[in-house]
Amino acid sequence: MAETTYFPRRLILAGAMISGVLLALAVHMLGVRYGLDLGGLWRSDPHSFMPAGAAIAWWLIAAVGFSGGYFTATLMDSAVSGRIPQGMRQFLIAIGVLVLAGVAQAASAPSAIPTISGVLAGLAALCLGAVMAFCGAHFALRRA
């Protein structure tokens, strides 16, 4: 029987955080294409409420960042210990590459939102995704 190999927890945490942040940014880029704009929070019109699209975008980015960090940390921990078959690992890698390629294609088109607002929304999505990916990865590693 093969001996179980253990990776340093910090390496798994870092990999899961990077994956969660990339997934959160991917959801942000795809959301902008479909009208879910984070920049709706910074509009200066005092007579209008915050658009529902901005709230949905915030929650969607947070949920994807958290779940991306959590599931990536769980999968990395399982893969290192040999509990995931080689075929499943290759399938998951292929799905990740396809998702990121689709996001890259969506991000290459001209943006529908102004530049400054887009940069601020991108930085907000990055920070939110990083915090939520850390929380998800941390909870997954505490559970393992």
Helix content: over 70%
How would you sum up the major sheet? none
Round the mean pLDDT to the nearest integer and report it.
Answer: 80
Number of helical runs? Answer: 4
Q: What is the radius of gyration computed over CA atoms, rounded to a whole number of angstroms?
A: 18 Å
The N- and C-terminal alpha carbons lie at a distance of 22 Å
Q: Proportion of β residues?
A: under 5%
Care to describe what's here?
The longest helix has 29 residues. This protein is 73% helix and 0% strand. The protein has 144 residues and is mainly α.
Summarize the structure.
The chain has 144 residues and is mostly helical. It is built from 4 helices and no strands. Helix content is 73%, strand content 0%.
Task: Name its key features.
144 residues; 4 helices; elongated
SSE order and pairing:
Blueprint: H1 9-33, H2 52-80, H3 86-107, H4 115-143
